[in-house]
Design goal:
Largest sheet: 2 strands, parallel
Strand order of the largest sheet: 1-2
Radius of gyration: 15 Å
Oligomer: single chain
Strand content: under 5%
Shape: globular
Number of helices: 4
Structural class: mainly alpha
Order of helices and strands: HEHEHH
Helix content: 25-40%
Distance between the termini: 16 Å
Length: 83
């Protein structure tokens, strides 16, 4: 994915999922070509979670000590999250 991103035009915009109640993470987007649509439309972590759950999608999964929630994991069949 990083290799693909490097192949894009320098003015290409990346959309990042950072909520309005994550100011430190949002501050890191300043001066970059990254935009948070969650922040733009006023979504907090809680409103994002409620929206995704209302769509019938799973949002969170178990993370064990020392791991992060980034990446992929096998998931049971579920409705599309429209992502």
């Amino acid at each position: 994915m990083r290799k693909y991103n490097k192949s894009l035009s320098p003015d290409a915009v990346s959309y990042i999922g950072i909520a309005t109640d994550e100011p430190k993470r949002l501050a890191r987007l300043d001066g970059t070509n990254k935009v948070s649509l969650l922040a733009k439309y006023g979504y907090t972590e809680l409103t994002r979670e409620n929206f995704v759950m209302s769509m019938g999608c799973f949002l969170r999964f178990m993370v064990t000590a020392g791991e992060t929630d980034a990446g992929s994991a096998p998931m049971p069949a579920m409705p599309s999250c429209a992502t």
